[in-house]
Amino acid sequence: MQDNREKNSRKPLMAKFPEVETYMKSCLCDVAHDAEHVYRVLNYALQIAENEANAGGEVDFDILTVACLLHDISRPEQFADPSIDHATHGAVKAYDWLILNGYSEEFSNAVKNCIEMHRFRSNNPPESIEAKILFDADKLEVCGAIGIARTLLHNAHVMEPLYTVSEEGLVQNGKKDKQNSFLREYKYKLEKIYDKFYTKHGTKLAKKRKPAAKGFYKAILAEVRECYRQEV
Fold this sequence. Notes:
The protein is an all-alpha fold. It contains twelve helices and no strands.
């Protein structure tokens, strides 16, 4: 009997695109957006895609796989220049690379559209089923315990603090912080992501993780305020 974990593995699909995987690895620059992040996004995406397919949806697994592998290839450019949107820039970068390496215009453009729309922005929502799945798979990476861990890694990379203290000496809870911090990122982004998913399976996975993230936020705020002898 075949192990379901082997059956659902990313490896058979990835084996079709070894040059894409190699290119992806050459573009990475930080531990919050490393190869394992990309592989987790791909694994989430394949799980969601299988559920969509079982429900009668038509998903192009090749387009989805390549889009997942290349979705963060412009992180280095965004770190070098924060005005650059890694999704928009990465979409063009992926398209150019795919065309240069012999992929069709249709395929390259489909991958480009997925990558362009994977970032959370109200003015550019994903349209195709592959784009919606990539969006959801990537957003699972900011949910729950893994979302907390990756946010802390990212904040350390860009030299942002865990929390901020007001001029009156009060530890801020993230709601009205003027300076970027982990607690601010939680209140502005991580806390609100759970009702932003496009697929049923993505929504289901996300909601299972919500208590872990909420519990960590409450715990760290309580511990810090206890240090300052302030009530939560």
